[in-house]
What does this fold into?
Amino acid sequence: MGANTSQVTDLSENPSLRTLVGTESVTENAPFWNQLISFTFISPANSGDSKLLEEAVIPLAKTLNGGGEDLLEELMSNLVHLIVEVPLL
It folds into this structure.
């Protein structure tokens, strides 16, 4: 894991994340899924970094929702929080 490391500020332009929220379908066996799973970034170390992370994913959430609603933004924020806070086994 960690083949595609990125800075938080680069998340909104990450090709894998753009594909995830894009309009084109991705087949279940596409290499995209392996690339997405291997994507990592440095977890936020403090509340300021967490805020930067949240701000970086909001444009992706809006793209996913076709303009963005508060509920989707909240769900994406919660998902990011879980990814950062819950340790992997």
